[in-house]
Amino acid sequence: MSIETRLAELGVTLPDASAPAANYVPYVRDGNTLYIAGQISSDENGLIRGKLGADMDVTAGAAAARQCAIALLAQVRAACDGDLDRLVRAVKLTGFVNSTADFTDQPKVINGASDFLVEALGDAGRHARSSVSAVSLPLGVAVEIDGIFHIR
């Protein structure tokens, strides 16, 4: 089954890959390794802002992380000239969670991205991961995630 077909089964339509907001590129390909720049939490309604432990709970944070993973796949598709089936596997994610000093559930928040990638890609979605706290993130978003992927 193609990745796009699986995404459709999940009710997910990938957005167009977003353009960089500053002096960087959205992805770099080095051989068969693809490095995707940090994708900030947003959906069809705009930016998903909030601070975990203050005005956002883990469930909402995980939903924001899921949106970051969707944006990562949109960048993979763009890097693969529209052919998402060139994706071999997710290798590593680094998740940043906008959270208070006493918030300790960053891994549960980033699970929103990890769970989505496994749901969409099966075993190819299993990856190494870091999940860390940040005192703030760009534009006040709740989550930012970058990723490393293996492609054909």
TrEMBL record:
SUPFAM superfamilies: YjgF-like (SSF55298). It comes from the Bacteria. The lineage of its organism: Bacteria, Pseudomonadati, Pseudomonadota, Alphaproteobacteria, Rhodobacterales. It comes from Pontibaca salina. CDD domains: YjgF_YER057c_UK114_like_1. Residues 4-139 form the Endoribonuclease L-PSP/chorismate mutase-like domain. This is RidA family protein.
